[in-house]
Write a structure and sequence with these properties.
InterPro entries: Hydrolase_YcaC-like, Isochorismatase-like_dom, Isochorismatase-like_sf
Number of domains: 1
Largest sheet: 6 strands, parallel
Structural class: alpha/beta
Distance between the termini: 41 Å
CATH class: Alpha Beta
Number of strands: 6
Pfam families: Isochorismatase
Protein name: Hydrolase
Helix content: 40-55%
Keywords: Hydrolase
GO molecular function: hydrolase activity
Strand content: 15-25%
Order of helices and strands: EHHEHEHEHEHEHHH
Length: 208
């Protein structure tokens, strides 16, 4: 029997690129508060499943600001790598940080989809990495340009996914006790109606 082609916690590293308020101001592809919630949910998922995280920022002193506090507070131990290049893959320090994880599967989230997300995704794919783009944790200038960038990455071999699918794929079995409490809390806080349903089941439904 062939292996199930689903993520296991030992496989991926997470790239969180340019999740900065100055760039979020330019997002027109989705609601910014929903986008921020999705990014925070992904950061919490990475922490819950002990995935290595590479965070990188650009122009933090002159325009974009630091990583948004709601995200940084989830992972205070992660220091952002400052870049000048739009393409993380062309920054020696950032690319070296990816290599040091020893992982060849990447989960990518960031701003803006048209450049600082798509450029390193295309570069990593060209070097043989398996890349999943957390599409609902990325934002573009317009819906059209965001979607065109997603299509370009998908055509090059990237997989499109969501933060919730990643969390559920890593958890897969609610009897995995080591991550159950954290995974459930993330869903309740960030997964809309599904989270409301889990909260209801916990608080209101009791075995006979």
């Amino acid at each position: 029997m062939s292996a199930i082609p689903l993520l296991e916690p030992a496989q991926p590293a997470v790239l969180m690129i340019d999740q900065q308020a100055g760039l979020a101001f330019g997002v027109g592809s989705t609601d910014r508060q929903v986008l921020l919630s999705n990014m925070v949910a992904l950061a919490k998922t990475a922490k819950a499943f002990k995935l290595p995280v590479i965070a990188s920022t650009s122009a933090s002193k002159v325009y974009s600001g630091p990583m948004m506090p709601a995200i940084q507070s989830v992972m205070p131990e992660v220091a952002s790598i400052e870049r000048r290049n739009m393409n993380l893959w062309e920054d020696d320090a950032a690319k070296a940080a990816v290599a040091r994880t020893g992982r060849k599967t990447l989960l990518v989230s960031g701003l803006l989809t048209e450049a600082c997300v798509s450029f390193p995704v295309l570069s990593a794919l060209a070097e043989g990495y398996a890349v999943s783009v957390i599409a609902d944790a990325c934002g573009g200038v317009t819906s059209d340009s965001h979607n065109l960038a997603l299509r370009r990455m998908e055509a090059a071999g990237a997989t499109m996914t969501s933060w919730l699918q990643v969390l559920l794929e890593l958890q897969r079995d609610w009897t995995r006790k080591e991550t159950y409490i954290d995974a459930r809390a993330i869903v309740e806080a960030h997964a809309g109606g599904y989270g409301i349903g889990l909260s209801y089941a916990r608080d209101m439904i009791h075995p006979l």
